[in-house]
Design goal:
Largest sheet: 6 strands, parallel
Helix content: 40-55%
Oligomer: single chain
Number of helices: 23
Structural class: alpha/beta
Shape: globular
Bound molecules: 5'-O-[(L-methionyl)-sulphamoyl]adenosine
Strand order of the largest sheet: 3-2-1-12-13-7
Length: 673
């Protein structure tokens, strides 16, 4: 069984933890928990990047020594990761002696291989990035593309790394490791960057002193990225010096282990180009994979200091708990793509998927049927006597668990959750179909026992598969099922692929609701408290979207004549809960030639009855089984005595009318944005 080593970037201590950095850390924790659950030797590393000119300046501004300053900035990170249930095995800080000596050892190895040499360097340097830029990378006015501030001209005698010698070696390495960078699109960007030819890299600074001294030339400090990247190895006790042997390094670095670096897309180049080149030069194996996730915006706005909309995780954890926040971030954002954090979405998923989808399922079965009909004890069933409907659910459950495992193996947490949530929906549907509350009223309990056991087993599988995402809630769920909390053991695969492990006779322990509802006004008050106070006037020029054509009064009037509506902002759009659903039933409403009555399955939101005024353009059978777009948060409305619980989206000009449908098979309930 190969070992698994997952890392987050080490965070700069000049910022406090926010949901962006929490996102990387949670993703790494979910992966680590998943691999531990599979019984694999697993190690999870995170830490802090504490050197560099920017930090030195910040410390001086605060009238502090750099070391005292970084020491004062570390506790909020430890506290945030603890509050978010992120269970790392090691926390590394680049100011620790154990790190410094390893960064110097990596340097010595690169010197020994002839890849480090001394020369003059003059360049355009961004203090924020701790990096030099070439003209073509800069924005107008010689501004750094990330910090939007002018770069400085810096001339100094420095050491260089012979990166130019690694163009072909890296390309050959990429060829041999086609999954080295994920997602694939980002790998293509990396490859084209390398294909253009690499330039040697300035590897030391003499202009400031807050860093690791260059071996043999202590008036220079090692370039902060060379220093920082080494953390992944120094935490394992590598690179080893002559005669040394680090067990951790041997166990958790290739070729023995699978190493996955989780990074944000902005720091991919450092990880996918520089880092493997340094390692190759030092005669060491590169990591197995670099996974670049996207960036989170907040209610459509970029998070930035000037906007004041950095969202710290603490208040959110207080409001909804660590598990819900972890779940939301992993569920709502496709790993690898940019995503938007919205408090409304967080609560919508809380009430819809977690409360109505999972919590109710547990409640309906354990707190009511098992308690009332079986005195709270798991009934005995003969697996060979199960009915087709039961077997179909068991089969689907196993399939969902297999898919979820594959997705987690491939570092696609949101897709794993899609598969797991399919089982939540299927189990709810199974309960609706089997109607255990009716069976409970019948004399013979044997059918009820089969149904109840099937649902309990499904809940057990869900609790384990969701444990990496929501460890606290899942342990609570297991407790209510009468089982012990999850306790991963090396060598023991606990992934729920097998059916029937819940022992008959287990005493269930129904407890309080897993995801208690917030009343509407309570939720609104919480959101109002949590919302960052955005000051749009302070948005920098570069962050402002290009002016839309409708902004000039003349153009606005002209476009309105074409039926265009006044501009809305992204927050207005975000209020619409647009979903993909599948038409399960379609029929004409008696005495109406216009109205069709549809039953639309919106996945986690359940099945809705929707009345659509499309009867003149569609026969009911045209829509059966079709996936369509639905506006799901309109208040219910009565038409011809029937309640419509949503609206079907359609395009048309009065003559033709076409119901909108996604052109790929996205999961039911997927949001449209
Ligand atoms: N210290 C370097 C990393 C060195 S790793 C050898 C660094 N630190 S950072 O604190 O600036 O950023 C750390 C991570 O946070 C990056 O992966 C970055 O992409 C991520 N994020 C910062 N803001 C983010 C969002 N708004 N959304 C998602 N991730 C974001 O870079």
């Amino acid at each position: 069984m190969s070992a698994f080593y997952v890392t987050t970037p080490i965070y700069y201590v000049n910022d406090r933890p926010h949901i962006g950095t929490a996102y990387s850390t949670i993703a790494a924790d979910v992966l680590a928990r998943y691999h531990r659950l599979r019984g694999e030797p697993t190690r999870f590393l995170t830490g802090l990047d504490e050197h560099g000119q920017k930090l030195e300046r910040r410390a001086r501004e605060m009238g502090m020594e750099p070391q005292a300053f970084v020491d004062s900035m570390a506790p909020p990170f430890l506290e945030a990761w603890r509050a978010l249930s992120c269970q790392y095995d090691d926390f590394i800080r680049t100011t620790e002696p154990r790190h410094k000596e390893r960064a110097q050892e990596l340097w010595r190895r690169c010197v020994a291989s002839g890849d480090i040499y001394e020369d003059d360097y003059e360049g355009l340097y961004c203090v924020g990035c701790e990096a030099y830029y070439t003209d073509k990378d800069l924005l107008e006015g010689n501004q750094c593309p990330i910090h939007k501030r002018p770069v400085e001209v810096l001339k100094e005698r420095t050491f260089f790394f012979r990166l130019s010698a690694y163009t072909d070696k890296l390309l050959a390495f990429y060829e041999k490791h086609p999954k080295f960078v994920q997602p694939e699109g980002r790998f293509n960007e990396v490859k084209s960057f390398v294909r253009e030819g690499l330039k040697d890299l300035s590897l030391s600074r003499g202009s400031f002193s807050w860093g690791i001294p260059v071996p043999g030339k202590p008036e220079h400090v090692i370039y902060v990225w060379f220093d920082a990247l080494t953390n992944y190895m120094s935490a394992l006790g590598g690179p080893e010096k002559a005669g040394e042997k680090s067990d951790l390094l041997r166990q958790f670095w290739p070729p023995e282990a699978r190493v996955v670096h989780i990074v944000g897309k902005d720091i991919l180049r450092f990880h996918a180009v520089y880092w493997p080149a340094f390692l190759m030069s030092a005669g060491l194996e590169p990591p197995t994979q670099v996974w670049a996730h996207g960036w989170l915006t907040v209610d459509g706005h970029k998070m930035s200091k000037s906007l004041g909309n950095f969202i710290p995780p603490g208040p959110l954890v207080e409001a909804v708990g660590a598990d819900v926040l972890r779940y939301y971030l992993m569920r709502d954002v496709a790993f690898g793509q940019d995503g938007d954090f919205s408090h409304e979405n967080l609560f919508a998923r809380y009430h819809g998927e977690l409360g109505n989808g999972l919590g109710n399922l547990l409640n309906r079965i354990v707190a009511s049927i098992v308690k009332n009909s079986f005195q709270g004890v798991v009934p005995e069933v003969d697996a060979s006597q199960l009915q087709e409907l039961d077997k179909a659910l068991v089969h689907k459950a196993q399939e969902c668990m297999r898919v979820a495992a594959r997705e987690l193996d491939e570092v696609r947490p949101n897709r794993a959750l899609d598969a797991i949530w399919e089982l939540v929906s299927l189990t709810n549907k199974y309960v609706d179909q089997t109607e255990p509350w009716k069976l409970a009223k019948q004399a013979d309990p044997s059918r009820l026992a089969q149904v109840v056991y099937t649902v309990l087993e499904s809940l057990r599988a869900l609790a384990i598969a969701l444990w990496p995402f929501m460890p606290g809630k899942c342990d609570e769920l297991l407790l209510q099922l009468g089982l012990d909390p999850v306790e991963p053991k090396q060598g023991q695969d606990l992934w729920p692929l097998r059916w029937g492990l819940l022992p008959a006779g287990t005493q269930t322990r129904p407890g309080k609701a897993l995801f208690p509802r917030f009343e509407k006004d309570q939720e609104a008050a919480l959101i109002a408290r949590l919302l960052p106070k955005v000051q749009p006037m302070e948005e920098t020029k570069a962050e402002k979207p290009a002016e839309s054509p409708a902004k000039s009064p003349a153009k606005a009037a002209a476009t309105r004549d074409l039926g265009a509506k006044p501009d809305v902002n992204i927050d207005d759009f975000g209020k619409l809960d647009l979903r993909v659903g599948e038409v399960k039933l379609a029929e004409r409403v008696p005495k109406s030639d216009k109205l069709l009555r549809l039953e639309v399955d919106l996945g986690p939101l359940g099945v809705r009855q929707i009345l659509a005024g499309i009867g003149k353009h569609y026969a009911p059978e045209d829509l059966l089984g079709k996936r369509i777009a639905v506006l799901a948060n309109l208040p219910p409305r009565k038409m011809m005595g029937l309640e419509s619980q949503g609206m079907v989206l359609a395009a048309g000009d009065g003559e033709v009318l076409s119901v909108m449908h996604p052109h790929k098979d996205v999961p039911l309930g997927s949001t449209i944005a």
